[in-house]
Amino acid sequence: MTPTQAWRVLGIAKTGDVGAIRRAYAERLKAMDIDRDVDGYARLREARDAALRWARMKVAVDEGGLEPLDGVDAVVETPEVPAPAESSSWLYAAPAATGESDPTLTTRLGDRTAGALDVTRGVGAAQAPAVQAIEVQRDPFARPVLLGLEQDPDAVMPAWAHEQALHRLLLPDHDADEYPPLEGWEEAMARGHLKAILHNAQTVSVSAFDEVDNWLAGMLMRAWPRSSPLLEPAAAVFGWESERGRVNERPAIAFLNMRLRGLRFLEKVAEPAHPLHKAWVELTTPAQQGSRRGWFVKRRDVEQLLEGVRKNFPELEHHFDHWRVALWERGGTSSDNYGWLSGGRLALIAIILLVQIVRFALSDGEPKRQPLIDRPPVTTQQQDADRAVIERAVGSIFGSGVTFAQIQSRQPDLAALFSANRTIARSQQDTDGAYIAKVRDLVRERMYMTALVIKGPLLEDVQRIRVDILRAARKAGAAQCMTFVRTRRLGAEVALAPSLLSRESLLARRMLEARQLGPPARLPANRTSVSGAVIGRVMDRTGIGEARVRQALNNAGSDADQCAVTIAMLDVALTQPEAQRQALLSVL
Amino acid sequence: MLIGIDLGTTNSAVALWKDGKATLVPNALGALLTPSAVSVRADGTTLVGAAALDRMAAKDGATATSFKRFMGTDRKVRMGRKDLSAEELSALVLMALRDDVAAFTGERPTEAVITVPAYFNDRQRKATRRAGELAGLTVRRLINEPTAAALAFGLQDKAEREPFLVFDLGGGTFDVSIVEMFEGIVEVRASAGDNRLGGDDFNAALTTALRGRLDPESRLANIDGALAQALLLQAAERTKRVLSEAPEAEFGVTVDGERLTTRVTAGEFEAQTEGLIRRLRDPVVRALRDSQIDAASLSEVVLVGGATRMPVVRKAITRLFGRFPNSSVHPDHAVALGAAIQSGLIARDGGLEEIRITDVCPFTLGIETAERTARGMLQQGLFSPIIDRNTPVPVSRMGIYSTMSNNQKHIEVGIFQGEAREVSGNVRLGTLKVPVPPRPEGEVAIEVRFSYDSSGLLEVDVEVPATGAKHNLMIIDEEDRKSPADLEERRKALSALKRHPREDAVNEALLARAERCFEEFLGDARAIIGDRTLAFTAALDSQDPRRITDAAQDLTALLDTLEANSPL
């Protein structure tokens, strides 16, 4: 309805006087029998609402010192604009969105002083808190604080600060499309902030509660999947799940509810009792070259799992190993129900099993115990010895001067890995050297995987070292070289030059400082095309024919060829122009 | 004559518009509230109100309370030799109220305005309407309880009011309405609620929490389960009332002449009811969201319903709204008074000519549809809303739908009420089968028009433009489809129940109370009650009015003294 019509229906001249509009409306309403004239009633209400909207606009325009718009239709089409200062609700105003214009809102949301620390959010939905509005000196996060462990979170900081801090943790960079998952310390902090926010939301008034609800939902959605550890507790407090399947389910809530179901499924399928557990384990186990489909996994289950996940929880698909999935999908036409386990093979396995059993039965003496179960008691002496070994490993990997305590503070999950491996090494009675080699492999793997994610100069540095390691490995045999490529584990026979090790420890130290040694991320399959010129140079360097080079590039052919080609490719790639270089380095 | 009735879960009240104001009508016992309880004695006579409530723990006969909770369902309660549904039980309460008005004014009321929770669905409203008809009252209008309360609140001073919120937590239902008043218009902006939340739930929570402590030896297991539960719930109600004023109260029952007691503090009670308190928030948020009103800009929060007396509830409300609520209306009387005002409006009484009420439809109404998914599969059972919730009523809206398979011969229009995206989660109101000309899929369209009137009655019109055929469905239940003769028959069956003459109500109630007290008290007190009761029954048998009055006075005085200084 246009305002012109609205004024006609109300029977009054255009006016900004709300009282006059209401009087006209009341008069018309009393004159009609609304049950007999349903359409007339609907028209009258619409006219009243349009007139009130116009009146409110006029007030806003007058106060803003602007000329009222003459094209009245245009005024009506303009969406709700929160009136400044007075947002009288019978004007059908949406609640004012800023903390400033509504003093009660400001006080409710914490002790923030209006203006200076204005945080725009709430009905403005997932609006980001104006981070820049916070002066750095007042930023409670200028120095690291251990959060989320206090009895009363409010005692440490006001609610708004928790909201900003959480926002910054979840969405550290405004322009990025996707963020890595929260790291251990980040997650702990985020949980702490969330706890405080939820606690606060439960004690404030309904409107503020509703605002926090909307704001948090919007933010968790935007920061997904980074925000996944926070979803369960938030959903429980705001009762998001009760909204599931409702006609008016808010979009953000609909999104989060889907994710929530995904998380629940993940939890359930990880339990051995779940009917699809085997299929899940099968599909999530990373496959390597020469891997085959798992035994005793039913094709039906795998198909059901794949279809279910793709249909219901597409975000869970990244848990699968793409290679493994391909293994199952390639054999789509095969009719055997037990994958690799069929016919003759079954018989063969049965025989092997039988032989093993017989051997086991004949062998006297106790069956070997599982070392992990038979954990010898730990004495303080041993603990001290362990600590010394760990310190030695740290010194040898990161160079002298770096201590285990530093790793614990910089990269707690890596530190946990060091100690866990130490415990295992002790129980298996490995030598200290073997332990150090093992953790070195782990650190090296993390360096490589992180570099693949971050790319840029870091990837070049890492690959430069890697090619030298490969060269060293080749001296011990092509098999050693390829084992390293495939498993990222370096054989004991391979000897690395001290200069190479010191280069590596320098880089490791740099990455540790930058907290870049997190758990290896799962990388999507990556492909790039290799130009003829590059292949030509590889042929020149290796002296291998084109056919064999191409074969090696496709992970086929002899180990010697593959190793030589990999090294040559890395060498060539490092001399290529920037764009080409990055593309090649990230697939090698 | 037209009366206004508040048919509540625990208490009912009746009021009428007289001499320019709403007046509550006292019952035979002189009380303004009549408990919504019906009891059938072993001899088949029925009792309604306080007498029935006192007989709740009696071992003979049966007593029904809180039956409003299963209004509109097929559930029946065994009462003596008959099974009675919620609407029949409600009809008995309505009859008692009707008789009270007849005794008060000397004129028999024939028409009524009855209040229902705003969040009552179509079926529950229909059942309430039928209960009125069964009681011999023509139901002129069903009005939402919070709307009625708002009327009573607004007419106190007839001032203009910015939107205010009516927070109606009764015995069994919870409603929230946002209402605005200006220029003699009472406009409901939004309503939301929870049909399964009320004072009864607080009693149940207390019972569950304390039963183990009260009865560690499981003595209660020796008596009938329903009876034990009734005893416990009554005890919980008493404890709850004491806790509204004192920081600590006793929770106790008498089983087989033995007294079991335990003490409970307000803090414990608060901890036990935390889950219930949390459920208060959701409807409030929904109503505010739907009406786009900020809680801070509400001019008042008006409390209605007996359960809002609980300090835990008041504390929660103060926290929810960041202010203290307005308790200027009587929480138990406001709804009945509002109903009486509405009846005055319908009767076009002089003093009220100026007021108009506009309400909203609290549920979404729509039809069942199917959709083709991206994979070409047919997904059925989807809910397609036609009238959104909190739309002002009366309203008429249309939706256009088309066939989904080739040569489809008819379309089945399933009519639903609710908020779930899949119809299985909603309430089915009816079905309409519409024949259509066989054509390729998608070529035949139908127009479905929903008309919802201000009493909450839905009418569905379906038109097939291809043939010009029109189909109409008044949404009526199976019950309604039965002929008027059928209704008459049920009415007769109800009247055939031996109802106690109203004149005897006082004596009956006194006897029931004496019996209850006899069960509850022990020792000397019990002996004295027994003596006085015997004297009273002897007086009743003598039929000498003066003797009866004297004996009744004695007994009442005794019971009053005992209960006021309860050793319990």
UniProtKB/TrEMBL annotation, chain A:
Descriptive protein name: J domain-containing protein
Source organism: Novosphingobium hassiacum
From TrEMBL, chain B:
Leader sequence residues: none
Keywords, in A-Z order: ATP-binding, Chaperone, Nucleotide-binding
InterPro entries (alphabetical): ATPase_NBD, Heat_shock_70_CS, HSP70_peptide-bd_sf, Hsp_70_fam
Record flagged with keyword Hydrolase: no
SUPFAM superfamilies, per the entry: Actin-like ATPase domain, Heat shock protein 70kD (HSP70), peptide-binding domain
Superkingdom of the organism of origin: Bacteria
Any one GO MF annotation of this record: ATP binding
Similarity section: Belongs to the heat shock protein 70 family.
The protein, known as: Molecular chaperone HscC
Source species: Novosphingobium hassiacum
